[in-house]
Fold each of these.
Amino acid sequence: MQITVKLFALMREKAGTDTIALDIPEGAKLTQAMAALVRHYPVHEPYIANTRCALHMDFVDPETSLAAGDELALIPPVSGGV
Amino acid sequence: MFKVTIEPLSVQQLNDLVKRPTDGAVVTFDGIVRNNFDGCPVEYLEYETYDMMAEKKLAEIGAEVQQKFAIGAIAMVHRIGRLEIGESSIVIAVAAPHRHAAFEACAYAMDRVKAEVPVWKKEFFADGADHWVNQN
């Protein structure tokens, strides 16, 4: 199945794009999606450990199961405010 | 009001928005762009956001703060895009019947924003270098 991965800030710049289409097995969990991402795009490997994931505008657990068409946002350490 | 915007922020506007006749205090926080990072001269900043999630998180934090403290209304607006030195990056306004709750709620809300809201700051230095804060 295919999901969409949204990238921000440094990861977006390293990838040269803000959106990646990723093929993962049916019913894959977030951890498997992250592994697939790093396999296809090794440039993200250094950042994954410090990145949280969000689905439907909420942070989600690594064990969360994904569905086809999900939009997965990779949220690097935030630095808003001042 | 909980939003991200590319428009300049107005402390007075948020102050007026949260105030009710039952309030005895409005505490506002005005976060501004500093001209240095650990002493290195900064020329300007850029803020990037995941806007829909950022606004949702701001609203969630607002609800959380209202649960936790004896306050009236709260509003938070974060600016994104390019900001110059001295411009406001975030304004938080908290109204309450009594001042202590407003002070505490405002500080707490700002701490929660810094931990949870998907906004990222990039600093551009006077020597031409740049970097994303808290990344690498």
Note: The longest strand of chain B covers residues 40-49.
Amino acid sequence: MGSMASAKIVVLPMIDKQTDHEPVAVKPSATQSLGVAAPADALAPVMSEAPAPEPIPTVSLTEVMRGLLAKITRERIITAALACISIGALFLFWYVGTKYRLEFYIRFKNVPTPYEVYQQLTQVGLSNKYLVNIAISVRRILLGFFIAMAIGVPLGLAIGKYQRVRDLFMPVVEIMRPIPAIAWVPMSIMLWPNNEASIVFITFIGAFFPILLNTIHGVHSLDGVLVRAARCLGASEFRLILNVILPGSLPHIFTGLAVGMGVAWVSLIAAEMISGQFGVGYFTWEAYSLVDYPAIVLGMITIGFLGLACSGIIRMVGSLLMPWLAFAPGGKR
Amino acid sequence: MTMAEAETQKGFIDVRDMGVTFGANDNKVVAVENVSLNVQPGEFVSLIGPSGCGKSTLLSIVAGFVKPTLGEAKLDGKAITRPGSDRGVVFQQYSLFPWLSVRKNVEFGLKMAGVEQSKRNTTARALLDLAGLLSFENHYPDQLSGGMKQRIGIVRALATSPQVLLMDEPFGALDTQTRVVMQEILTNIWQQFKISVLFITHDIEESIFLSDRIYVMTARPGRIKAEIKVPLPRPRRAEMTDTPEFMNLVQELKGLIREESLAAMAPEIKDRGLSGFGMKVGPKGVGEIF
């Protein structure tokens, strides 16, 4: 009796497939109707091809692959072309504006040309000063961002999970959150023993709230049935948080990290401009003070590229850590 | 055989004088009232009733999610206070962890129990083979159909070798064809594991096809209206649904449920509602009725 039952189960998936996707049921009727339409002619080639069925699937498979490849590369080409067009348009606007010194409310009179900025890059780009400024900014960002993540994610999980923790922390969070990081500059200078710590603190403030709030949101949007399922499977409180609530909130946490990184850069540059020594923000502001216009643009472009690199890294880590999202409803694929 | 007998000693669910009330004072809602039921070791018992009759609440109590206001639920003589891996639960909603592969989902309960990786792997693969889904072990749940997800849900609940399986309308979200196949799969799996099952449903044919015994519940507040034994032989087969025995049971249960469904919708509806609200609509519309 037992063996019979198991035999039946092994057969069943095919039935299930049939009910889930209908092509299996459709196919026979299609061939049947073909046979009825042209009985002798249709059957003969099928019989002759029967002994050597192998080349047919391989040919169709490579064709399918080739078609897929062609589609992918065409998609890629279009994407790349559009990217070039958008960046090219920006450069063209800049180039035309500076070449003809356009004046229509906004004034291109003092704006350096792309070539001047390029020259600046080749001169300054090799200098220690420029690279050290970049290194210092990146270090501040990483410090502030990782501290924000190390506090924001666990606190967010706790606030999301426990009503009492929420009651305790949320009033403070709600008051602090609307204060922009830049508004913290004077207070930060008073609070911290040195300039470096105060700038890192401002960067931290910028990154912290997006990370915290998105983590809380992630916990709240987790389907309750998953928590119940985990409990039924014997998950302890700690295991529940580590193995269910954390991975379940991860997509929202990464949204928070990406937003937090953006705000961290905004905060850092502002802080460096106001109170800084060194850093890309300081470099840019110093260039303005020294009437070194090409260096201003170089500083801005540098900030843009650093921000792009940081959010790119977060996105990459995100897709590495969350491979299942590729298949989620409304996902990338 | 001695092993099987020893196993069937366990898995006795005993619910006594259960009452569940939600809210307080003016908002008080009596969900379940004075319910006593049991599931013998190795028995398949269904709980059937109209929507909102508290059948899911009863299952939640046995699962340990909800505490009863009155009475108690026991498993093998021990009072149920919280969820645990001695009771496998299959939910109506798909409850697989989307971030884990199919195999890791089945392994989850074993991982929580501290079973080592290689052993977890072996058990999970054996269960997936049983569910006919071994070739999908490295897929993510979002890549599977609803029927596949529920099959994995069932073997995941079985992975920790629970004494009982609690199922809350597990096939409710599936289409009719898939559903019928899933019922056969479930009855086969149950035949092999011989564990106690408490199965919640509102589908009459489903409850008869699967169960040894059926409890019919009344509309809210939920009480046990009838207890019906299903004398059909085991193992159950799809053809049995055409036998007169089966048909008679369906008719009997339909009669019982119909009364309660009407009561559940509204006391006023009774016959008026069913005969088109007893209204006559004139040529100028509803205004001319009275």
Note: Chain B touches chain A through 51 residues (CB under 8 Å).
